[in-house]
Amino acid sequence: MSNIEKNVTSGFLWINLSRYVSTFINFAGGIYLARQIDPVYFGQQGLAFAYLSIIFVLGQFGQEYDIIRSSEDEVEKVAGTHMSIRIGLIALVGLSLLVIYLFRVPLGLDNVYIYLFALYLSQSPSEIISIYGLIMSREMLFKRLAFIDLTSSVISMTTACILAYYDVKVWALVWLLMAQHISTMILNFILCPRRFCPKFDKKTALKSFHYGKHVFLYRLFSRSYAKLDDVAVGSLVNQTALGFYQRAYGLSGYLQQLLFAGITAVTGPYFGKISADSEGLGKKFQFVGNLIVRVAISGYCAIAIVLPELIEILYGKKWLPTVPLFRLLLPFAIVQSISMYLVNTQLVRGESSAVSRSSFAALIVLLIFMFPLLHFYKAAGVAIAVDISAIVSMALLLWYMRAIMDFSIRKLFAAPLIAASAGIICWLFLSSYFIVSGNLIMKLVTNLSIFGISYLAILILVDYAYLRDVCYLFKNRLLT
Questions:
Q1: Which sequence spans correspond to the domains of the chain?
Q2: Which residues contact residue 102 at a Cβ distance below 8 angstroms, ignoring those fewer than 6 apart?
Q3: Residues 132, 143: Cα–Cα separation, whole Å
Q4: What is the four-CA torsion angle of 33, 39, 41, 47, rounded to 10 degrees?
Q5: What is the mean pLDDT of the chain?
Q6: Which of the 8 DSSP states describes residue 439?
Q7: Contacts of 173 (CB under 8 A, 6+ apart)
Q8: Over the stretch 256-273, which tens digit does the pLDDT of each residue have?
Q9: Could you read off the pLDDT of 136-170 as tens digits, one per residue?
Q10: In sequence order, what DSSP letters do the residues of 77-122 get, joined into one string?
Q11: How many Cβ atoms sit within 10 Å of the Cβ of residue 190?
């Protein structure tokens, strides 16, 4: 095993350990916040954050992967140029917010402006200093990145829970984001081993522009796509419905952070270093992709099955309207986890135009389907539109990937879809025979066991060779 592969393996373990702990903290803190704060306040915070996320894409302009891809000779010049560009773009974001405020653009909530400006003041310096975080990712300093992720999660959630205890309501949720921005900024600056000053270089800027313009469009389209449904539900339905919708959306995000964010955090820099070897990259992509698809399909299906008991145990009965929304968002949750991996691989290979086209297609499809479905089915209609658009986007990404890399789509999806279908059928058939009335925990364990055993048994039958290879790989890594 090469030094790079050892670093990737070590980084994967550290990043995932950090994600597991921080996800548990955020999950536990989220339960406390959900019990202390009504859904309408979650909707208010979500609406403000949705608007800011769409506007703030101007402050990045696709710089992240350009820094990770840069050579050792270029990195200082690239980082200095991007830092100066980012300062100017963030100033433009502030000017945009000021114009929106002065012209009193209707945003669906009277006091949303104060939340927007508060979040802007905390996120602006964090966006500038995040250049140091990208440098650490480029140099594979995964232990430091894991520490930053964990520490910022602890600080932000602790701050929010303390404010919620004192009945601050929506400001507790706003400070949840602000504290994370501030703590991440400080830790990125302290822990990065290199220092850069804003220094604009025209040649570097032009070179970065040709690559970054597609990443910028991807960020703009995907950010708009990710927040458009929140804006639609919050503005056209009501903020309570948005609170339920965001809780369903957030539950899918917990699993994504827990299982897949750590993989993409280490495969991105690794794939960037071996991108010249097309055949080797294709094999690595296939192996990791198979693992992500199998875990995504089984994990999200399992959560959807036990969600009624899980919601009632953790959040209380007032959050049960989240269950049908999460189940409707199940295809999106699975597809989004896979698409995140596809996009990451495309960008480190320098194929930025493909991701911008796929995200644009997703946004257009969402706009076509969302408003008619919202009219008839409210928040449930928005969830269906999100599913359709996500599937279209993933199909395009796979099509673009097949043009530059040799891998099998059948090997990615066939076995886990067969196993998941069999597991769901077994659960539907057998759950009625094992009903444990009145005991939520026993019902949860019973339903999870029926699906899990059925899924795993079928997967072993139809995909034994791949599972054997995975076990062999992790066994060797642990021994070395």
A1: 3-407
A2: none
A3: 15
A4: 110
A5: 79
A6: -
A7: 33, 37, 41, 42, 44, 45, 160
A8: 766 666 666 667 666 766
A9: 887 878 888 889 989 999 999 999 999 988 888 77
A10: HHHHHHHHHHHHHHHHHHHHHHHHHHTT---S-TTHHHHHHHHHHH
A11: 10
